[in-house]
Amino acid sequence: MPSEAPDTSYKISVLTGIAIVVASMVGTGVFTSLGFQVLGIQSGFALLMLWVIGGVIALCGALCYGELAAAMPRSGGEYHYLSQIYHPVLGFLSGWVSATVGFAAPTALAAMALGRYTQSVWPSVSPMALSIGVVLALTLVHALSRRAGSRLQVVITSVKVLVLIAFIGAGLVVATPQPLAFLPHTSSDWHQLLSPAFAVSLIYVSYAYSGWNAAVYLTGEVQNPQRNLPRILLIGTAIVLCLYVGLNFVFLYSTPIPTLTGQVEVGFVAATNLFGVGVGRLMGAVIAVLLVSTISSMIFAGPRIVQVMGEDLAPLRPLAKVSRQGIPVRAMLFQLALTLLFIVSATFEAVLVYAGFILSLFTFLTVLGLFVLRVRRPDLPRPYRTWGYPITPLLFLGLNGWTLWFLAHDKPLETCYGLLTLGAGLLTYFLGQWASHRFAGLGRT
Questions:
Q1: What is the spatial distance between Cα 122 and Cα 116, in angstroms, rounded to a whole number?
Q2: Alpha helix stretches (DSSP H) within 276-390
Q3: Which keywords label this protein (predicted)?
Q4: How far apart are CA 245 and CA 182, in angstroms?
Q5: Does the bond joining 123 to the residue before it have cis omega, within 30 degrees of 0?
């Protein structure tokens, strides 16, 4: 009896795509990283400019990825683009990073932040047990039904955006303004924008914006991707830019910097300072619930990269197998195992910096590939062309490259871990190639 064909009739709409982008971005970074940024930066102007510049980088990146996604409409994101533009080995390394770090680490970070926020409200809760339980439950939902997973994503992301808008509005009304200038008054305000502390902090911010490219991993499942993907990327990123600047303005406008310094749960701290302990605890609980949306989006998108890699590479072929509903369940379980490993074995800040460095490196190479592709394949159909080319990609490359340089200098241990991850990926690639040739040779004999 023939097996049932996968159900591929359901396609991701523009609304769901925007929800995935917004949910991927609005999560761990914006609710946790400000406490680390104020350790090295005390200027309100410089702190707010971090989020403006981070948003500009993300928008420039979204414009560039929009052209690549429209010209090469296949799921897989950077893995697909870099394989086609440069060489399959670079594409594999990108996919390796996405599979082992790009989604598993952010999922773990969001789950760890959810546990920390929940414990700030209910001290008896075990953060690790809650983190693990939420990841397991959401993986089960997405493994059973693509339609149910999409609907869940739209609902919880809509709630997240509405809650944040309400928080920003209420914070502006009830806040006691802090003695902090958000416009430049002295030359030192401008000098801080060129400091190593600003560059390293920009990695935290870039990580907070890092989901702007989430929809490209699902290209093959999007309705009319050549038309809709650029719209999804740009609209989703613009929404998040506005939310991030507004949210961090409220944090800084309402809460003394010493109170925020070194804190992971900055949303809870700011809400407590704004509304009192009772409402602060409630807001901490709400933020914990909102992080469910981020975890869900990562679990939804990440396994598609492993699936595409499995379709192209024989050693990973078992991970490309999909269920009768067309869901890459094996790849999902692979990502689940890595996520749980990060949760139980690493500290929050180390995972954040490590993930931020290695992910920024591959987005840098992908945007650089836009220039390479235009030179090598000028006749390739491009339904969408990057607005502001070549200024927008050059701006992205300049800001991103500057940040990577300072991060490598200031955080050498996390940088080395990132390079070791690439080394492990390179070894895996060549072992896989050797095994493929050996098995092929045995088959002929």
A1: 10
A2: 277-301, 303-312, 329-345, 348-376
A3: Membrane, Transmembrane, Transmembrane helix
A4: 12
A5: no
Q: Hey, what domains does the chain have and what are their CATH numbers?
A: 14-431 (1.20.1740.10)
Six-digit token pair at 287? 């933020």
Q: What is the pLDDT of residues 164-174, one digit of tens each?
A: 888 889 888 88
Which residues in 131-225 belong to E strands, given as ranges? none
Can you tell me the distance from the alpha carbon of 362 to that of 425, in angstroms, rounded to the nearest whole number? 14
What digits encode the pLDDT tens for the residues 116-152? 878 877 888 888 899 899 899 988 887 776 666 566 6
| This model's pTM is above 0.90 | no
Rounded Cα distance between 242 and 246, Å, is 6
Q: Are 19 and 154 in contact (CB under 8 A)?
A: yes
Residue with tokens 């092929």: 440
How many C-beta neighbours within 10 Å does residue 174 have?
Answer: 11
pLDDT digit string, tens, across residues 315-339: 677 777 877 777 888 888 888 988 8
Helix (H, G, I), strand (E, B) or coil at 126: coil
Q: Return left, alpha or beta for 276; rule: phi > 0 is left, psi -120 to 50 is alpha, else beta.
A: left
State percent of the chain over pLDDT 70. Answer: 87
- The sign one gets for the Cα dihedral 180, 183, 189, 192 is positive
Contact partners, residue 350, CB within 8 Å, separation at least 6: 414
Tokens, residue 58: 């993300």
Please report how the helices 104-121 and 277-301 are oriented relative to each other, as an axis angle in degrees rounded to 10.
Answer: 160
Residue pair 42/181 in contact by the 8 Å Cβ criterion: no
Nearest-5° Cα angle at 265, 259 to 270: 50
What letter represents residue 355's amino acid? A
DSSP state, residue 318: G
Q: Which of 364, 384, 382, 370 is nearest to 231 (CA)?
A: 384
Half-sphere exposure of residue 367: CA atoms within 13 angstroms, side-chain side: 28
Rounded to whole angstroms, how far apart are CA atoms 183 and 219? Answer: 41
Residues in the chain: 445
Is 401 exposed, middle or buried (CB count within 10 Å of its CB: 0-12, 13-18, 19+)? Answer: middle
157 DSSP β-pair partners: none
The answer to whether the CB of 57 falls within 8 A of the CB of 140 is: no
